[in-house]
Backbone:
């Protein structure tokens, strides 16, 4: 059987529904998996008509019936309706209606994966402001998925080509990120980065390296002492407690280029922009992020909701199609691993 992939509709105020429909209208996408969309079918139909996307949507009443329909009628895209009201808000502007629908879809998709009904989830972008307006304080989809899984330790692995980056701190101010970096906190981030390499990427003996915080890796305390007081002790404890070898701390302006050339399997970045500046300098059509921390295979493109170009026929579906291809590959990799 083809992999069962549940796809959330994303934030309807931006480009998410456009890229979703463009992606799943392609024959290559439909041939590779059994997709099930969680969303508002009437809204998605309107977007399809506006974008002139030739795709047949059909409502289903359960995930099982949706995947069965996808298998029986590969040209039909099953849609399982959300319980939240269909948004009527103006596109291109953050709104609680968009946030509520996006959160429901991601939470439902997570539960389908946890139950085994779906083997992976593909999540187009959401808008954090819309989620906050709807009363949800999640920093992003990673936290939403992690809390839905009741996971104590989770995070995001961001990938672009050969460069794969574990982000130790995600959506927070730089000052908060720095204050969050204690030895114990970083020790856990190192541990879960190794878990990501082994369990998600399938690398038995990964080469994991960690970036320094300060210029020139602090240069023996001349430009900061965090490398000596936090990062190196965390590296040493990871070796002592878990037997995990981690290279570093390495100079930030060198380590990411080395990772992009395949020298390291995972690079640990200490804060959001330290990771995403080098990642987003690489081709975005082959960039994605993966959830790590529970038995949920989730993959998402590395772009935002793009409110400014919604319904202008400017959205590029290639990143989402690439993510779908990676989801299929990872599901098949997991299936093979369970057979060994």
Residues:
């Amino acid at each position: 059987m083809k992999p069962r992939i549940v796809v959330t509709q994303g934030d309807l105020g931006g480009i998410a529904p456009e890229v979703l429909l463009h992606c799943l209208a392609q024959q290559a996408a439909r041939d590779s998996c059994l997709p099930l969309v969680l969303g508002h079918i009437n809204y998605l139909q309107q977007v399809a008509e506006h974008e002139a996307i030739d795709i047949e949507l059909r409502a289903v009443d359960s995930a099982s019936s949706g995947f069965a329909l996808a298998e029986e009628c590969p040209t039909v895209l099953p849609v399982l309706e959300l319980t939240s009201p269909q948004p009527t808000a103006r596109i291109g502007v953050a709104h609680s209606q968009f946030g509520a629908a996006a959160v429901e879809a991601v939470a439902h998709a997570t539960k389908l994966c946890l139950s085994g009904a779906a083997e992976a989830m593909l999540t187009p972008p959401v808008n954090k402001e819309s989620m906050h307006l709807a009363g949800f304080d999640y920093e992003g989809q990673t936290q939403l998925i992690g809390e839905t899984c009741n996971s104590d330790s989770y995070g995001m692995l961001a990938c672009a080509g050969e460069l794969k980056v574990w982000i130790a701190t995600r959506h927070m101010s730089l000052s908060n990120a720095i204050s969050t970096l204690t030895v114990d906190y970083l020790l856990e981030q190192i541990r879960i980065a190794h878990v990501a390499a082994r369990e998600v990427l399938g690398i038995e003996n990964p080469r994991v390296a960690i970036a320094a915080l300060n210029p020139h890796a602090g240069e023996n305390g001349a430009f900061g002492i965090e490398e000596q007081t936090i990062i190196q002790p965390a590296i040493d404890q990871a070796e002592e407690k878990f037997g995990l070898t981690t290279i570093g701390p390495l100079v930030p302006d060198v380590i990411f280029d080395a990772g992009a050339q395949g020298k390291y399997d995972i690079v640990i970045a200490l804060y959001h922009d330290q990771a995403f500046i080098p990642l987003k300098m690489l081709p975005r059509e082959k960039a994605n992020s993966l959830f790590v921390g529970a038995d949920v295979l989730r993959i998402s493109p590395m772009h935002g909701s793009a409110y400014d170009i919604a319904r202008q026929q400017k959205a590029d579906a290639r990143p989402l199609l690439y993510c779908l291809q990676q989801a299929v590959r990872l599901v098949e990799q997991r299936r093979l691993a369970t057979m060994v």
Summary: The mean pLDDT is 94.
